[in-house]
């Protein structure tokens, strides 16, 4: 395979990849919005044999006459809003992750809001208790708080927020949130004090409730096609030691609902870059389930829930149920230490085997350089160093074919339209001159996995979100706003194409496609993350320099021999 066919195959695969992504977005399965019967809503909401049913009603319905209030809790990395109705976290702002990059005009943009109580983006972390025959506060009960604002003070490592619920029967429940400095992990403890005259039996549960992402509005076609967030998974996920990492798309909630007994697992809702995860104690056996909620005036909501084992509290005694709640970015090193398998929420898809090593190398280079763009450049140099021998063989073969071009043209003229005889004569010529026309295949086999692996790293690694390079590149995970890098790569391709020999007997259609190849790549790279285009600009320059060196050396050797 010569360089011409290498470029052609690469372009074809890139175009197929873009078409596949567009098809998945436009014609793939979408969540069902039809009303769900009440009986369907109740399915999968009880713990087998013990737990009472948990209502799927949101905090807005069946609210009762009691009024709730909102509590603000701030640390160095999180700002939470807790609703005393249910003690649910209804908003979470990630203070280190702005919605738009910081600039001189806007040095303090709004922070990413993961949990959100607006109707269009509703996403809440809820918890509660249920009991078959006793009083228990679920995610609709009204709690009391001593303060409406809490903040982690300087020098303070942890912050406790207590919410209290009491019942006339003597049952008292204290829900405590414990937040830590420089941490997105929240400890959630529900303590039950039985001041009644009879045993209290019940279960603790934790759940997420959210709507599907709203349909984005784009100002132009380029903005739409370059929005990489459309292709990331948005929905529920869960993990068990036996069945590992599992996705539960919203359109599967009614078709294939979750109902599993799991020990040592977790449930979560994830999106590009960020996730919320409920993590029960490692040895606790929980019942994982899913359900849907149909709001009378709003979007359909989806619930993923973990219900703990039965709790028994004798009169005058107390007991507690604890779990961890993670609300933050998908950072692999941090997620690995929080819970087994939580790092799998960084969704590299089928190319995980290539994407994870590439991410690791980039992360190590970033520690040295402090710039992800510079790290990408260094990654290119490392890869070219490793593959130097293979690409050298490719360019030496191309140089020989360039030298043989007059003889190949003579064969074409001799055999005319008899392609079979011409190909046979060309193979004999290759054998005699020791030219390997397949020398370009191995570099291609190395290049394509790196290309797609790096694409997923740039698309799904939160460290590269809004990571600047130099000059006009303020976000390596977004498309080049001025198309400078795609144009540079097109120029490099044109020079490489000019230096490559044209194979005799090439199909006319293929020859015409090769003339349009640089333009095709320019269009493709307009929509790709600028970090990926930067990789290929630098890689193309390295290969061009190597190709020039090999060609000149071959020409010098030929002149000396003559």
How is this structure best described in words?
Residues 1-22 form the signal peptide. Belongs to the OXA1/ALB3/YidC family. Type 1 subfamily. Interacts with the Sec translocase complex via SecD. Specifically interacts with transmembrane segments of nascent integral membrane proteins during membrane integration. InterPro entries: Membr_insert_YidC, Membr_insert_YidC_N, YidC/ALB3/OXA1/COX18, YidC/Oxa/ALB_C, YidC_ALB_C, YidC_periplasmic_sf. The chain crosses the membrane at residues 372-395, 435-458, 478-495, 516-538. Residues 1-7, 22-50 and 60-64 have low confidence and may be disordered. The protein is elongated, with a radius of gyration of 30 Å. The protein has helices spanning 3-27, 38-42, 221-225, 332-338, 352-369, 372-386, 388-415, 419-433, 441-460, 484-499, 508-526, 530-561, and strands at residues 70-74, 78-83, 88-98, 111-113, 123-130, 149-151, 158-166, 171-180, 185-194, 200-211, 235-240, 244-248, 259-263, 266-270, 274-279, 285-293, 301-313, 318-329. By secondary structure, it is an alpha+beta fold. The protein has 2 domains: 3-17 and 357-561, no CATH class; 31-45 and 70-347, Distorted Sandwich (Beta-galactosidase, Chain A, domain 5), CATH 2.70.98.90. Helix 7 (388-415) crosses helix 8 and helix 10 runs parallel beside helix 12 (530-561). The protein has an 8-stranded antiparallel sheet with strand order 7-8-9-18-15-14-11-12, with no helix packed on it. The protein has a 5-stranded mixed sheet with strand order 4-3-2-1-6, with no helix packed on it. It is built from 12 helices and 18 strands.
